Every structure is written in structure tokens, then in C-alpha cells.
Amino acid sequence: MLSLKPSVLFSLDKIASRAIAIAGPVFILIAVVLISLAVITYYSVVFPYAFVWDKDYIWSKVNYYLGLIWSIYLTVCIAFHYYMSITTKPGGILIGGTGDPNDDPVLHDIFVELEEYQEFPKTCKKCHLPKPERAHHCSVCKRCVLRFDHHCPWIANCVGHYNHRYFLLFMTYLTIACAYFTILGWQPFLLSLEFDSEWEWWMPRPYVALTFLLAVSIGVALGGMCLWHYYLVVSAQTTVEFYNNRYAKSEAKRRGEAFVNPYSFGIVNNFKQFFNVGSNYPIYTIFLPIPIPPSGNGKVWQKNATQRYSTVQVDEYSEDDE
């Protein structure tokens, strides 16, 4: 079997990371075009087909307005959370605890802050800056990101401490919208395939058919990814930590020990901490398209008292970050 040298693999990784960074705006443009096409198709074909206005029947008016309000709500939530996912910085090492990009502490202050919680604060081998717990180095952005989950080309940004909430809610509302579009749009989709029948809408048939198929495929793919991220949320893990913890679990099992995620405080508390609801913000803010900051500064994290397996061993395993 052909094997590549480490130097070749490193070069390929650098090329791939550079390509992802350059193509970021293109991915955003594609996403905006596809979402816009779906919105136009929905309001010009699907909505008029599903919600018929009958001036002589009051319940048709009520149904029409309820459908319109719900449709506008989904559209606004998708647009808002996608915009916030793109424009919100995920959180870097040189960003202060307030989250203000202009709050730029010196390295000495960062080490002092971390030393209060970590006996030996780590330093990233790639960017040579203090490395808080749960932070990882992104090879695309070339910097360490607080509570790094992954780099997403569809937002041309890392998913990290300060924008993970917006990213997950964007996926949630888009998945719901795809399901809603599929439920209401299957009949217009079938009509769009009957080329010998009358077509009363200005939107061409192929666009309606294409949009329906996109809604189904994107809804299934994005729905699976959305469920995966909710599992990570309620288990207090990021994507990187999931694989690190899986390794740690196998090591603990081999030693006859039980691994406990030090950052997990139960499903409900993990959910509240991620969305920053309960203590700081009401839970209904999850359903509102408004900016809500995360809880904490992303550099230091409270740990549960039941930890039985050393997180140092987990960190050693994950020394080579994404």
C-alpha cells in the first residue's frame, strides 16, 4: 500500500486549510443563494397553495395569518442566526473576559488568569500563546479558539465559545424550515412535474422541483448534524472533545477506572449553560432572534466534583489540535 511521508501529509494539510480559508466567501454565497431561492419559492408558490384566502370564511383568514406569522418568524430566525454565526468571533486567546474584541490583555495577564485555575498553564506549540482548557488550534484560521468545536466553511468561521449558540440555532431553524417546506410543498412539487397541466405561478416549474429536492436532502443531512450537536451540548462536549473523551474512556476502561467528563453537570444544567439560560437569561430567549452572549469567558471552566480520571492524560492525547 502506498504511504505518504509526514512532510507530504503536512504540505497537503496546509494546502487544504488554505483552500478552505479562500473558499469561505464562496460557500457563504452559495448558502445565501440556495436559502434565498427556497424563500422566494415558498412565498411565491408553496404558501399561496397551502394557505388560501377566503374572505367569506373567517377561519381561512385566521389560518392565513397564523401561517404568515410562522413563516416570517422562521425566515427571520434563519437569517439572524446565520448572520451572527458568520460575524461573531468565536473567541481567541487575546480576547479579554468581556468578549469585547478591543479588550486585548497582555500575555502576562492571561498567564496570571489561567494560573488561578491551572497548576501548569499550557502553551500552544503552533501559535506559542497561552492555551486555556478546552481551547484548540485551528489550522485554517491559524490561531487558538476558545472551546473550539470545528471550522465550518459554510460560515467561513470557526465554531467556538462565542458563536456556537448562534450556529446551533441556525441549524435548528433551518432544519425545521426544511421539514415545514417539505410537508407543505410536496403537492406543488408533484404539480411541477406534470408539464401538461396548467401552472398558475410565475416561478418556473424546474425551480420549484429543485427547491423541494434541496429542502428534503438538506433537511435530512442538516437534521442529523443538528441532533449530533444537541447530543454534544447535553453531554458537555465539543466535537474535538468527543473523540478525545472516547480515547480517554478506553484508557480508563483498560486501567479498570471510570471516566467522568469533568465539564458535565447533568443534561439539564449542560443545556442551560450552553444557551446561557436559567440564571442569566430567561429560557424563552432561545426562541427569539436576539444576541445572547455565552456564559463565562471561555478560558476557565468549572469542573464537577466526581472527576475520577485525569484530564491531563486527555490533553496529552490531544496535543496535536485540529
From TrEMBL:
One of its GO terms (molecular function) is protein-cysteine S-palmitoyltransferase activity. The keyword Membrane applies. PROSITE patterns: DHHC. Pfam families: DHHC. One of its GO terms (cellular component) is membrane. The chain crosses the membrane at residues 20-44, 64-84, 166-187, 207-228. Residues 119-245 form the Palmitoyltransferase DHHC domain. Keywords: Acyltransferase, Lipoprotein, Membrane, Palmitate, Transferase, Transmembrane, Transmembrane helix. The DHHC domain is required for palmitoyltransferase activity. This is Palmitoyltransferase. It comes from Paraglomus occultum. The lineage of its organism: Eukaryota, Fungi, Fungi incertae sedis, Mucoromycota, Glomeromycotina.
